Amino acid sequence: MSLPPGFLDELRNRTTLSRVVGRKVTWDNRKSNQAKGDFWAPCPFHQEKTASFHVDDRKGYYYCFGCHAKGDAVSFLREAENMGFMEAIEVLARDAGMPMPERDPQAAQKADRRSQLAEVMEAAVQHYRMQLRTTAGAAARDYLTRRKLTEADRDRFEIGFAPDGWQGLWDHLKAKGIADDLILAAGLAKPSTKGKAPYDVFRNRIMFPIRDARGRCIAFGGRAMDPNDGAKYLNSPETELFDKGRSLYNHGPAREAAGKGAPLIVAEGYMDVIALVTAGFHAAVAPLGTAITEDQLRLIWRIHPEPLIMLDGDAAGIRAAMRLIDLALPLLEAGYGLRFVILPEGMDPDDLIRARGAQSMRDLLGTAQPMVNLLWQRETEGKVFDSPERRATLDKALRATLTRIADPSIRAHYGEEIKRLRWELFGAARPASRRGMPRRAAEPQAPLPVTRTSLLGAAGGAEVEEHLREAMILAICVTHPACVARFESQLETVAMREAGHDRLRQALLRAAHEPAVAADPDAFRNKIAALAGADLEKLMALAHVRIAPPVRNFEDTELATMCLAEELAKLEARRGAAAEVEEAMEDLIGLADEGLTWRLSQAAAARHRAERSRIDDDSDMGEDRAALSAQLQSLIDRAVWEKKRH
Questions:
Q1: Same structural domain for residues 233 and 251?
Q2: I want to staple 599 with a disulfide (CB 3.0 to 4.6 A). Which of 82, 386, 512, 584 is the partner?
Q3: How do residues 109-164 score in pLDDT, each as one tens digit?
Q4: 409 and 354 in a common domain
Q5: CA separation (Å) from 556 to 68, 76, 282, 539?
Q6: Separation in Å, CA 202 to CA 15, 165, 208, 486
Q7: What stretches of 133-150 show up as alpha helix (H) in DSSP?
Q8: Minimal CA–CA distance to 167: which of 189, 187, 150?
């Protein structure tokens, strides 16, 4: 729904941010000045011991000097408690005593209908709970006792019982004055095909209420007491309240526990979740009787960025893991992944905890494997790769799988890990001399006179690398005019450290704006020579430029595009990381130690990722483009090394 103008401003004016945040943190009274609305605490968004998280009640704004989390009361509830936007607004409005704005008539009518259905479901919850306490529920209570569920556990999960009768719930709800259409629309009864009264959906089953993230009962799961029943577990049919593929069992409590730092465990069913929660693993959820759907996976990631998928160790469990991997690959993003916990074969979470205790479960969670390991296992387990053809088949299968990863950075890192695993599997032949003796490493050569007199001779290592990358960028653009138009915005903003390089950059941009010149490579180069002839000669005389594949291959524009994109990205990443470190050092005075450490580590990590990234969509397993990238890097490394030797 849309909010009327001014509603959010009024809500923020009525909300005391420190009161909202204070539910999640402990204020540092030595550092805080509460009389002035100035509060400090350890940050709830990252692990720290010092109070670097600041709340300013007067501005209604928070900021962490460590991890840079910032926002207002709405963003705090969304981040700290995994709430949606409207859910956070409703919570704050309720706390502030503000009525939510009226919705449009159709939306209001639909909301009223859903509220009515939720009330019907709540009445059913109470009826089933009462039935569990009666004589009819004795067998169900015995079963739950054998599963080590105490009365307190039954109350906590609101477990109930549906007696073996056709219209027990129907008659109960009708007696409370609930209309037929609401009972049917809630999925609690079905109309008779024989002209009789509707009959109950759940009969002779232990009942588990399924609640949404807001705590409303939206459905039931029922476990059959009769071993001969065709469906051991039965869920409510889909209704206006319940979409099975978009719901999770124990969603709300698990979200709250995960927000406090508990690992999120995704189990297979209701009893698995209950066993985990009663053993102290409060952030546990389960899909509702089917394989995890894309919508459920996105819900899970909203609760925790790296959930632990717990599966049986049998063949069915492994197949379920592989289906989930195929679902997740195109959806992966930086910071969001999956780890897999494989249970001992023949045991579910309840079996493991009862047989070996909660500590055994904690130990098992510590063995969680990243998704790439299971992906590798699927492609290699039980196979023999004793011929080039079989190894090529493996490479082809892995490439096909990796191309499904949409995020280029993640795809590149998967390619690197796959390459490492291949090395472990296949090894590599070690070269030796004809006599079978190990080869001696070649003695490093003394720097040539040309090296000492080159432009690189007066520069430091970092400056050398930037100079080489600038030169490569310009040389590719001179050789392939089409690249200038494609990367024009980046070329306009990239800073060239050397004056000659900057003159060439400006000449390239001017020439690209003349259609007749830009369309003819020879005319384009002649124009550059006319505008910056001496600088162009100096550039094209550089050894690493002359032998670079994108400069030598005039016809391969695709190759040039890939190389240019990579060089621009690496140059930008290096300079961005350096700027971040410099800024962090300038802010050293008065900045929390952990905040400084965090910023420096993030800058270093960003540079490391950039240095290892690959623009090419294929994995790094011997393809021409990956080899080209490595060759370009080796040219730069060799030039820097020569400078350092000198």
A1: no
A2: 584
A3: 666 788 899 999 999 999 999 999 999 999 999 999 998 899 999 999 999 999 99
A4: yes
A5: 44, 51, 57, 21
A6: 45, 9, 11, 63
A7: 138-146
A8: 189
Task: Quote the CA–CA distance of 582 and 405 in Å, as a whole number.
Answer: 35
For 302-343, the DSSP string reads HH-SS-EEEE-SSHHHHHHHHHHHHHHGGG-BTTB--EEEEP
CA distance 89 to 78: 10
Is 519 domain-assigned?
yes
Q: Are 638 and 444 in contact (CB under 8 A)?
A: no
Residue 476 in tokens: 């590719």
Report, as an integer, the average pLDDT of 527-556: 85
Q: Is residue 439 part of a domain?
A: no
* Residue 477 pLDDT greater than 60, yes or no: yes
Residue 443 domain-assigned? no
Q: Write down the mean pLDDT value for the chain.
A: 82
Residue 77 belongs to domain spanning: 7-96
Asked whether residue 542 is domain-assigned, the answer is yes
CA end-to-end span of the chain, whole Å? 68
Task: Give the H or E element holding residue 64.
Answer: strand 61-64
Q: In Å, how far are 447, 475, 524, 631 from 547, measured between CA atoms?
A: 19, 11, 21, 10
CA distances in angstroms from 51 to 62, 209, 309, 593, 595, listed in the order given = 13, 41, 34, 11, 10
* Residues belonging to the chain: 646
Burial of 31 by CB count in 10 Å (0-12 exposed, 13-18 middle, 19+ buried)?
A: middle
Quick one: which H or E segment has residue 61?
A: strand 61-64
Residues 202 and 141 in one domain: yes
Dist. CA 58–CA 577, nearest whole Å: 34
Do 608 and 619 sit in the same domain of this protein? yes
Task: Decide which of 96, 122, 146 is a domain's last residue.
Answer: 96
Bridge partners of 211? 217
The answer to whether residues 89 and 128 belong to one domain is no
Q: Which of 63, 96, 129 is the last residue of a domain?
A: 96
Q: How many domains, the chain?
A: 4
Same domain, 482 and 616: yes
Strand order in the sheet with 205-211: 160-162, 205-211, 217-224, 233-235
Confidence of residue 643 (pLDDT cuts 50, 70, 90): very low
Residue 323 and residue 460 in one domain = no
Three-class SS string for 215-261? CCEEEEEEEECCCCCCCCEEECCCCCCCCHHHCCECHHHHHHHHHCC
